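mind reviewing this stuff:

——
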Amino acid sequence: MKFLERAAALVRQRTGLVFGDGRRSSFEAGLAAAMRRARLHDPVLYLTRLAATPSLLDDLVAEITVGETYFFREPHQFAVIREEIVPALLSARSRDRPLRFWSAGCASGEEPYSLAILVRELGLGRDAHIVGTDLSRAALAKATHGRYTRWSLRGVSDDVVHAYFTQVGGRFELAPAVRAAVEFRYLNLADDTYPSLSTGVWGMDLIICRNVLIYFDKKLQDRVHGLFYESLEMFGVLALGHKESVTFSSHSDSYEAIDAAERIYRRVK
């Protein structure tokens, strides 16, 4: 097996990420960049280290996936969550427990922090628990620091920026109260260790997983859909990216579309 194929096979085995012919060139370029950064030029040595060193795998995954994220990305979807989803969840929930939100594949944290800002603006305070997970430990470390450039805030109103961020040089630091509202955890969606108490992923009222499933093959997509289903409370909500859907999964009849255009679905079974 050629070096490129062996590297792709290792990535697929460990993460579930699939790179077909259409993504071959981007995978090859990312692999070359990761090798240069690791200062490992021998393919055999690099593969050996890659299999044994989580930080090298993290770095490669960051290179070969599109880590594009920013605050309140997909504003129409966030509007539905704010105006329809959260009020409906509040009216249906038991008063003795907080709402539970999960940002799956949260990258550097902009998405779960957007949820934290949203629930504060709705006056929920401690009535919501937010978990952000990712398979990149480097991304999670960045997320916990809560420091961003203006690029991560594009499209965000000045009022929100002034209310929740402090500018320090060229960076914008998120308010400590918002950072404290999100719990970040390592989680590989390709593993079947969730829902579970140990992962912090269980009994979710809302799962947001956008532009992650597109990297999985159909079989793994279906398995992850099943795990999302098991992780949701009855009438919990799943929000996907615009290129993703539950329509063709084996779990499609377990959901109803709240907003098909925005890829928002409610568990009904």
